[in-house]
Amino acid sequence: MTTTLSAATFKLADQAALSPAQQQLEQRLLSFIHTHKDQPETGLFVIHGDAGTGKSAVLAAAFSQLQALSRSQNANPLQGTNNYLVVNHNEMLKIYKRLAGDAPELRKKDFQKPTPLINRLNKTDQLADVVFIDEAHLLLTQPDRYNKFNAHNQLQELIKRSRVVVLVFDTRQVLKLKSYWQASDLQPFLDRYPHELFNLDEQFRVTGNADVVNWIDQFTQGHLLPKPTDDQFDFQIFADGQPMYDLIRQRDQQVQLSRMIATADFPYVVNHGTWYVTAGSLKLPWDKVNLTDDPWALRPETLDEVGSIYTIQGFDLNYAGVVLGPSVGYDAATDRIVIHLDRYEDQEAFKNRDDLGALSPLKTQIVFNSINVLMKRGRYGLYLYAVDPALRQRLLAL
User: Fold this and answer.
1) Residues 6+ apart with CB under 8 A from 129
2) Per the database record, which ranges form the AAA+ ATPase domain (predicted)?
3) Cα–Cα distance between 52 and 71 in angstroms, integer?
4) Do 155 and 195 contact (CB within 8 A), yes or no?
5) CATH class of domain segment(s) 15-200
6) Which pLDDT tens digit goes with each residue over 88-135?
């Protein structure tokens, strides 16, 4: 098996490295911006795609082109435009700002979290020309006083303050009720504004064959298939967490960017001491609040921690050791994965809402979404350990 070192933890490829589908998307996107930037109605360009299909790569490449044209000394239709790339994810924002330091056409101020940008545009009564939104499924769909967002939907507010909005949207990566999006929730915006849709369906992160990707997809819908084999992708199931961690350390020494990550099934309170993830004989601390400018997976000391969906979503790892916590169980009668909502420790994810109907199925979907995010982190290998004894035995029997 051959692997390559990664310079960053999500793939921001140059033009030569983009696939034909990605290059087609980039050109259609820039053409859409040209067509709609001077129209009376805001134009929406929506990019769909599962975890690992290269959405951020295209977004970053197109945004770099846009900013190069905006800041060009040569006259062109996009010269002098006021553009931003927005992401509601602290760790991804750090990666974008880090890359801005290496690209002459980019500035760190080009990259923003949504609430500060919305509040600033409102205060100054300004319109942005183009706003790119990565991980738009993380935008808030209700007020959040803690984050100083007082309106009801961040996407609506960004559309009101922009001439063109380009958004990446994947309902399978929604992780909290306060930002809960269903596929149908986008429809009112598509009915209201001129738009174009593009779907990326080629898996770029997980190098495993179609059987490997299908196994993960089926697992995150509750189904168990026979364990797939692929000489180019290292997929292993462990009876204990310690040997899994030992192998992750070995992989990190060989190719870097190999980390332990887990479902949010272990207690954790921000700024209240050290909290631990246990996986059989293994006990490691949860990731700590990261106040540095370096993303979690790029810091060497995090090899001795366990990452969460909030530190790893959107990033590439070379190898991922995934701990499935107590909320992820197994029902022998139906031979299906079951979710025990009372054992899921991410209370922030389940803050109740009264506008979504029955919450139990939505909460179950959020947990499955988090598993999908975790299992699709590793480019070259996925290692699994299940805390639930029944699930662990069933996985080992595969």
Assistant:
1) 37, 81, 82, 83, 162, 163, 164
2) 41-259
3) 31
4) no
5) alpha beta
6) 888 889 888 887 877 889 999 999 999 999 999 999 999 999 999 998
- How many other β-carbons are positioned within 10 Å of the β-carbon of residue 227? 16
Task: Give 1-36 pLDDT, tens digit per residue.
Answer: 333 334 445 544 444 477 888 888 899 999 999 999
Tokens of 167: 């958004």
Mark residue 198 as left, alpha or beta (left: phi above 0; alpha: psi -120 to 50; beta: remaining): beta
Q: Which segments of 105-257 are extended strands (E)?
A: 111-112, 128-134, 162-169, 195-200, 234-237
Which tokens belong to 117?
A: 């940008």
With beta carbons less than 8 A apart as the criterion, state whether 318 and 7 touch. no
DSSP 3-state assignment of 327? coil
* Sequence ranges of the domains in the chain: 15-200, 210-397
Question: Strand pairing partners for 49?
Answer: 200
Residues with Cβ within 8 Å of residue 69, at least 6 apart in sequence: 76, 78, 79, 81
- Residue whose tokens read 């034909």: 20
Q: Report the amino acid identity of residue 106.
A: L
Distance CA 71, CA 36 (A): 20
Q: Is there a contact between 217 and 363 (Cβ–Cβ < 8 Å)?
A: no
Alpha-carbon gap, residue 92 to 314, rounded angstroms: 7
3-class DSSP state of 98: helix
Provide the residue type at 142 as one letter. Q
